[in-house]
């Protein structure tokens, strides 16, 4: 493959490209070239700004998720500990009612266990989330 000359002059350009280059150079309008260059720069700047805007939105979303992470983990910790404690009490009641053959206590224990299992643990999450954002809110179990 032939090496291109290091310095491309009009003469070498004519020689290598031929008649097409003459037509292009003759019809080339320097103002149009400048206009296109500035349009390119404008588009480049707009895209850069758009990317910066997208990155800023992403960073805000990440911070929001990080802030909600603590609320969510706290909610699940408290909500499931409450459910666990209640279930343990109902299972203790169930065991005692079986040992004592107490049908009324057995019905209460089974109803309590089934009630907890049917309950949606996320049912009150939105209220919990709103309350946790208040600085003086205290959780009552």
Describe the structure.
With 141 residues, the chain is mostly helical. Helix content is 79%, strand content 0%. It is built from 5 helices and no strands. It has helices spanning 10-17, 19-27, 30-100, 103-118, 125-132. The radius of gyration is 37 Å and the shape is rod-shaped. The mean pLDDT is 80.
**Shape assignment:** rod-shaped
Percentage of residues in DSSP E strands: under 5%
Terminal residue distance: 83 Å
* Average of pLDDT: 80
Sheet with the most strands, sense and barrel status = none
Low-pLDDT stretches: none
For the secondary structure, the number of strands is: 0
Order of helices and strands: HHHHH
User: How much helical structure, as a percent, in the residues?
Assistant: over 70%
The count of helical stretches stands at: 5
Computed Rg: 37 Å
By secondary-structure content and strand pairing, the structural class works out as mainly alpha
Please write out the topology:
Blueprint: H1 10-17, H2 19-27, H3 30-100, H4 103-118, H5 125-132
Helix pairs in contact: 3-4, 3-5
Key traits:
141 residues; mainly alpha
Structure in a nutshell:
The chain is 79% helix and 0% strand. It contains 5 helices and no strands.
């Amino acid at each position: 493959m032939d090496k291109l000359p290091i310095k491309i002059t009009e003469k070498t350009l004519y020689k290598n490209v031929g008649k097409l280059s003459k037509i292009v150079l003759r019809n080339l309008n320097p103002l149009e070239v400048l206009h296109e260059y500035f349009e390119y720069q404008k588009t480049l700047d707009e895209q850069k700004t758009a990317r910066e805007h997208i990155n800023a939105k992403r960073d805000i979303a990440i911070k929001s998720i990080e802030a909600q992470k603590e609320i969510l983990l706290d909610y699940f910790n408290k909500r499931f500990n409450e459910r666990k404690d209640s279930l343990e009490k109902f299972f203790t009641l169930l065991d005692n009612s079986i040992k004592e053959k107490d049908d009324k206590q057995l019905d209460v224990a089974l109803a309590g266990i089934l009630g907890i299992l049917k309950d949606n643990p996320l049912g009150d999450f939105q209220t919990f989330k709103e309350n946790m954002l208040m600085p003086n809110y205290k959780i009552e179990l």
